[in-house]
Structure formats: C-alpha cells, structure tokens
Amino acid sequence: MGKLRTCRRQRGRRVAKAAAVAVAFLGFGGPVSAASRTSPTPHGFADTASLLGKPGGTGLIRADEVTYDTGTKIVTAQGHVEIDYNDRILLADTVTYDQVHDTATADGHVSILEPNGMVAFASHAVLRDKMRDGVADGFSALIGQKGRFAAVKVTRTKNGTILTGIRGVYSSCKVCDQPGKRTPLWQVRARKVVYNQPEHEIVYRDATFEMFGVPIGYTPYFSHPDPTVKRRSGLLPPELGSSSILGSFARLPAYIALNDSQDATIAPTFTTHAGVLLETEYRQRWNSGGMWLQASGAYNPNGGPNEDEHQWYGSLFGSGRIPLWDNLWHLGFDAQFTSNQTFLKRYNLSILDRLVNDLFVEGLSGRSRFDLGGYYFQGLRLTDAQELFPLVLPALSYTYIPEHDVLGGEVRLDINGAAVSRDSGPNSQRLSAEARWRLPLVTGNGQLITFQADVRGDVFRVTNNDLADFPDIPEKADYVWRGLPYLALDWRWPFVSSAFMGGTSLVVQPIVQAIAAPYGGNPSGIPNEDSRDFELDDTNLFSLEHLPGYDVAETGPRANAGFEGTAFFPSGGSVDLLVGQTYRLKPDPNLATFIGFENQHDTSDVIERFTIKFPAHFSLTHRADIDQETGNLRRNEVYVDGTWGRSVLELSYLKIEEPDPTIDLPSRQEVNGQATIGILDYWVLFAGARRDIENDRM
C-alpha cells in the first residue's frame, strides 16, 4: 500500500494558515512526493505539484485537510474545499480525485463556476476529463442573469457544453426564499431537458407549462434560446380567435433576426370570411437614428361590404430618423397610408380614422433649428371627402437665436411657411416672419418681471375657392397682408415658507400678464388651416398667445391673471392648486368658436387645476372649466394614477357640457380605466375599458 501524506490546516496563524494546501497541477510531467511539499510557501500554501491530472494545465486546491495516497494516486480534500482548475472553480465539503482515471467526486454543497459565468449547484457530482464532463445529482444552475434550471440528475457531455437533465424545470422568474413563496410565477417542467451551451438552446421533451405551480399546457417538444440570447429567428406564439367580420382566424407570426441592428417579422393570417392577410414589419437601428416599416396586404375572394369594392387591400405604416451628418441633421418620415377606408378596422390593424404622412429634413446649428418637409392627410371616416383634405408641401420652419444678448435680453427670429393645396376648395400659400425680444429681471425682494416685445408679419396668397364650405374666403382672393405687433409684461412674486404646519414647505405665487396689442389682424380671405383645434385649459392659460398655429391670431389688449400654490409635505407628498382667468377690454369674435371663450364676454371661463401627489407613487388631479357667469362646470375632469414598479393603474372621468351652439361639438361624459401589470422582464398584462355615459355604451 502506498504511503499517505497529510497536510492539515495550521490553526491560529494569519493568511498563510487559512488553507493547508495549494496544489499546482498539470504543470509537470510526473508525480512528485507530497512529503516534500508540506511546508508553507511564502504565499501561505504548500506547493504540491502534479497530484491531479496530466501535463498542460494549472490549478489550485484549498481545503482544511488534503491527503494524497502515493500508491493509488488518489487525492482527498476535506473541509471548505476549493479547486481552481483551468478557470473552472469547484467548491464542496469533500472532493476525492483519482489521478489515474482523471475523476473527481464531490459531495456536500457542491458548486461549480464555469468559465462562461454559469453557476451550478449539486448535492453530489462525479466529474471527469479535467472536470468538464460528468454526472450531478440534485442539480440546479443559474444561466445568464435571469435563467434558473434544475433537475433531479444531470449529465455533462462534450467538454461540459451539453447538459442533459432528467425531470428538469426551467424559469426566468425570481424565487423568494420566504416560506410559502418558493413557486415562481411561471415555469416549464419536462421529462428531459437538454441545454446546448454552444448553440444557446434549451430543448424540452414532454414539457408542461405551469403558472403559479398549476399546469396550463403540454407539448411533446419545445425549445427556446437561453437568457444570454437577446434575439433569434423563429416562430412566435400563434394567435387564434374569431370575429363577426373575419370569422375564425389564425395568425402565425415568425421573427427573423437579420443582424445586430436589423430584424423583421412576417405574420400571415388565415380567415374563414375575409381571405388571407399578410403583415410584414422591418426594423433597423443606427447609433443616432432608426426606422421601421410595416406593410400589410390582404386578398379577400368574397370582396368587401360593397359589391364594387376591390378584392385586394393594402396599407403602409412606418417611421424613420436617418442621420445625415454630424448627428445634427436628420432625414425623417412618418407613413400612414391605406388603400381602403375600412381595411385597417376590418382586419384589426388600427383604430385610426385620420392618417398623417410626413417627410422632412431637420438640422441643428448652435442654438438654431431648420426644418423643411411636407404633409399628406387621409380621412377614413364615412363623412370624409378626400378631395377636401390638404397636401402641405412645402412646410418650412427656421429659428435663429443669437449667442449674445441684445440690450440685455434674448432675441429670437422665426421664419415659417406652408403651401396648402387640395383637389377642391381653396389653395393657399403663407410666409411668416417673427422677431421677439425678451428680458427677464429679478428684483431685490424676489419679484420676477419679464418684458417681451414681438412683431410678426404674414403674407397669404389664396386661390381657387369654389366651395361654399369656406364662405369667409372670396372666390378670387389673392394676396392678404397683415402685421401683428404686441408688448407684454409678465409679473410673478413667489412666496416661500419652510416652516408651515409642522415642516411643510409652501410656495405661493400670484401671476399677472398684460399684453398690449392692436385690434384687427384677422382680415377676411384667410383660411383657418392650422388654428382649428383649441381649448383654454391649465396648460395654456398663462400663454401670451393662446391660439396655436398662424392662421387665426389673438389680437387686442388683454391680460391673464391667477395664482399657483404648492405645499410640499415632509412625508414626500405635495398639493398643488392653480386658478386663473383671461380678461379682455372687449370680446373678440374670432375666439368665440374656441372652448373657454364661448361666452362672448370680455372674460374667459375660470380655469382650475388641483393635484394631490401621495408619497407612495399615487396622484389625483382635478381639472375644471368654470362658467364665469353661472359657476357651472363646462368641463369637469378627474384623473387618478398609481405606479408600483412596472405596474401602472390609470382611472379618469370626463364631463364636457355642450358648448355654444356655434361650436359643432356635442356634450360628453365618460369614464376610462386601464391597468398595466409587469409580470416578467419583457412581459406585461394590459386591460382597459371606456364607458360612454352620455350614450350609455362601451
């Protein structure tokens, strides 16, 4: 029998005594007597060479006790064993290594850290071929940052790159260590699980899908990439369903990973009542831009709801921002086009009823911005007449802000223009130039005073008004000129208290804005193309110019007045209140068609906003438009939202009384709710509903 050489931990000493033996192995051609290796090295470890393996590798053993049988060439390490072998680390309570057969047997709290970063655990393991292949019992492993794989027994083959598990389970959900919380949200159980590390593929045989530990589905074969794979070509989950229009349908999507920056999706849908639909989507990303295109086409041998309708339909959606140079100039587009008014809704592709297409080039230079493009609109409502929808080409916008102040204030120059044409109705071209000077001041007692001077000039050319839909525009209108100057003063005086009601911080500021401008400025003959949609509310109450766009101008002397107060509580919550109103020396008939100015008086409705923000990511907001004569709520809106991690809850109530009869808008009353629940890293559950209380329908 061979002699036994034993090294024990030398207790009570410093780092040099923390481990009894460090074995450098596979660095020499033959065995060396362990008896000469029992004294500590300068680094604190005995250098026992060539006890394990064959020439060609290096490694270390750390343990409380190491015994080497020179006759059987078996090394036994006990107590806090750590073997570092060719970048593979093995931890266990006990490890026995047979040098002749190149086999290591590990027992008790076995852990293996692979060179690729995967961490495996087992109760018992037998490893061979430089600890790459072998068998493990009670196996579990961490794959990537999220994957968790476990099996009753696992066999490692092909240099440890193929793991075959018996009675395995996989999930990417975190598992709590608290009692009663060991079951992940979802997992896949299988009779056999094969993890192919070079291919980054996990394959299941006789797989059962579970949610909260309850089986919900079975398949004899299933596979997916491991968590280290960001994307891979393959089939996506199919969609099955039925509807009154499509009949029964099956959607079979497939994903194609073209390269690191490009991918695509192809999804044919087969229906029983509406033929075949094919959806395609292409995506590409650059360092400072990207694009996506979505093209869909359908062939319906049964035709559409109208006998004369074509059997072929199609649509094109997309968006792109393509860098040109210096990452400051981009070519951009947004596409929304369909060949048929009902195609998108019929095949559940989109609920949009107005489509907007644009093409533009934009750039930045210092504090200046340039934008040149065009717009095309398409109406899908049954009452829409496409010949009345405009083509805007070109649309020009340029802003220049000098680096240096002028007379102590900031100067801004704007040039804007648009050419609008349509098959029927007026065609117009507009060019606008605006210069603005703004000087903010802070007084010694904290008042904020801002002076502003602005002058704008517009020139319009309007032709081809052959429709009664535009009665204010002469049939043969030509050039229309106008100038729009104004002077403005914005005054605010914030008051701050940090010792209000037990540590609550309070900020209150009155706000007064006075604008001096001449009357007029809206001569007949100018079509209203870009100032149609406006509603006075808390977002634009304290604007020097309330109306959007260029076609309709707000003119005449006027003032905005109100206050805003915010209380910040020590617990982290806050309460905010804003109240204000617009005043005029006399009513402006050009504003009577906009919500908030319907009363034809020299004062607008009272605008109110009240917000409570609770510390736990929860808030409540109330907005109101109050009739200044009767006190009735013309608009009453309540919005509640809460956020918990990736989960979001939103509830809202809206009631709008019927405006002035001159405004073609009905009264509205509705409630809306939607919830988003994050269940996985890339998965959420969403539900939403809207109830039309006015018409008693969903």
What order do the helices and strands come in, and which of them pair?
Blueprint: E1 4-8, E2 21-22, E3 46-47, E4 59-62, E5 65-69, E6 74-85, E7 88-98, E8 103-113, E9 119-128, E10 133-143, E11 147-157, E12 162-171, E13 186-196, E14 201-211, E15 214-225, E16 234-235, E17 239-243, E18 247-251, E19 254-259, E20 262-271, E21 276-286, E22 289-299, E23 312-325, E24 329-338, H1 343-346, E25 354-365, E26 368-379, E27 391-400, E28 410-421, E29 427-442, E30 448-463, E31 479-492, E32 495-500, E33 504-516, E34 558-568, E35 574-584, E36 606-614, E37 618-626, E38 633-644, E39 647-656, E40 668-680, E41 683-692
Parallel strand pairs: 2-3
Antiparallel strand pairs: 1-5, 4-6, 5-6, 6-7, 7-8, 8-9, 9-10, 10-11, 11-12, 12-13, 13-14, 14-15, 16-19, 17-18, 18-20, 19-20, 20-21, 21-22, 22-23, 23-24, 24-25, 25-26, 26-27, 27-28, 28-29, 29-30, 30-31, 31-33, 32-33, 33-34, 34-35, 35-36, 36-37, 37-38, 38-39, 39-40, 40-41
Give your account of this protein's structure:
With 698 residues, this protein is mainly beta. Among the domains are: 4-131, lipopolysaccharide transport protein A fold, CATH 2.60.450; 436-461 and 483-631, no CATH class; 636-698, no CATH class. Helix content is 1%, strand content 57%. The protein contains one helix and 41 strands. The strands form three sheets. It has a 26-stranded antiparallel beta sheet that branches. A hairpin with a 3-residue loop joins β23 and β24 (329-338). Residues 1-56 have low confidence and may be disordered.
